[in-house]
Design brief:
By secondary structure, this protein is mainly α. The protein folds into 2 domains: 5-70, no CATH class; 96-159. The chain has helices spanning 23-31, 46-53, 60-63, 66-70, 96-107, 114-121, 146-159. Helix 5 packs antiparallel against helix 6 (114-121) and helix 5 crosses helix 7 (146-159).
Length: 161
């Protein structure tokens, strides 16, 4: 699991729940899944490490995310890539999920991390190779506008390259 959802769960505007979760709430959500014993949180800053470590020191109430679901907040996954690869096969041999994952990671921060940039440009095919044929879009169970994502990836990764 990606406990922080590549950072999307930490911001109300990108969270599928419409509200920002705390790092401890994200960790607790993962730990509450059957069979999960350990959660490894990918931290980008010392502050995020401190937030993750704080999980064990908080009360059950402070780690709880129940209020988010109890509030009746609408949960929308429409338009959000889950990296499931149902969009495949791609005639240009793009790993659409990987391109989208790196785009999501890049846009969750003020500047694109060097590691994200390196991983993106190491892909055998990038958004530059997309034919914009749209064959992928009807296959997506989440209604992701993949061609728009590919255009956005071109802009983001060329701007910071």
């Amino acid at each position: 699991m990606k406990p922080l959802g590549a950072g999307t769960l930490l911001k109300a505007e990108s969270s599928p729940f419409g509200v920002a979760m705390t790092v401890p709430q994200c960790i607790q959500y993962c730990l509450d899944r059957n069979g999960v014993k350990v959660v490894i949180v990918g931290c980008h800053t010392p502050q995020e490490v401190l937030e993750a470590v704080k999980h064990q020191q908080l009360s059950e109430e402070e780690r709880s995310y129940a209020h988010i679901f109890a509030s009746g907040a609408s949960i929308s996954m429409t338009g959000k890539c889950m990296y499931c690869n149902h969009c495949q096969p791609c005639p240009a041999h793009l790993d659409i999920a990987a391109v989208t994952k790196f785009l999501d990671l890049a846009t969750q921060q003020e500047t694109v991390p060097d590691t994200v940039m390196e991983h993106y440009w190491a892909l055998p095919a990038t958004a530059d190779d997309c034919l914009m044929c749209g064959r992928c879009e009807p296959n997506c169970p989440f209604g992701v506008k993949i061609c728009e994502n590919m255009k956005h990836a071109r802009e983001v990764f060329h701007k910071h390259n």
